[in-house]
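Hey, sorry to bother you again with one of my protein questions. A protein chain has come my way and I'm curious about its shape. It would help a lot if you went through both lines with me. I owe you a coffee for this, so here goes:
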Amino acid sequence: MLKITVHDGEQIVRLQVEGTLIGDWVNELDASWGAASGGLKGRSLCVDLTGTTRVDAAGCRLLSLMHENRARFTASGPSMRALIAEITGDGSSSSYGERSGEMSITVKENGIVDTPSSHSVNETVEKLKGILQAKGVTLFALVDHSGEAEKVGMKMRPTKLLIFGSPKAGTPPMLAAPSIAIDLPLKILVWEDGQGKVWLSYNSPEYLKERHGLPQDLLQNIAVVQTLAAKAGE
């Protein structure tokens, strides 16, 4: 099964691909790519494979064709990163390069995904809070790390952590893989780096699946964090 979600941003159009890119599902991605390419209007096209678990030969051929047409990729997990590195030929599977004004999305070896924001930390936090409320997702806590540091006379760049979730979505994964409770509720860290760039960071759903042995059919219960971060950063 394959789920494809199109995130239509100001600078980038992102195709989020979740599930198995095999058989007839390859045609689904091909169709989505064609539709998205027709509406780029000068924007970059990026393919998010952090939620993709398997790619067959036909899927590889399609990804290669997309790469030849300037699509960029991000992937999670050693095997998927190796596959994309082979397709791109430059080992850049873990990030979208910041070329020609492109946005950069990085998947680190420790499973943390860094997604850029076009706004300040406070603006990003407020946008994310609004998205959570609109989707009926509970915000359990907002930790102002930099604000707390200031209270004790220490300086820290703006850094805030949002902890959120839904018992309906979160309970089944914990029943199936109890240790995942240490990583739930879901979290997104909004922070500013040394160059003043703002990022949204979260644990890759695929990384959490592998870490805790979560069944594949429950990956969708935690994969929403990807969409939330992407929307908040636009």
User: Anything to note?
Assistant: The chain is about 35% helix and 30% strand. The first helix runs from residue 25 to 37. The beta strands are 2-8, 12-21, 44-55, 72-75, 106-107, 112-117, 138-144, 159-165, 186-192, 198-203. The chain has two domains: 2-103, 114-233.
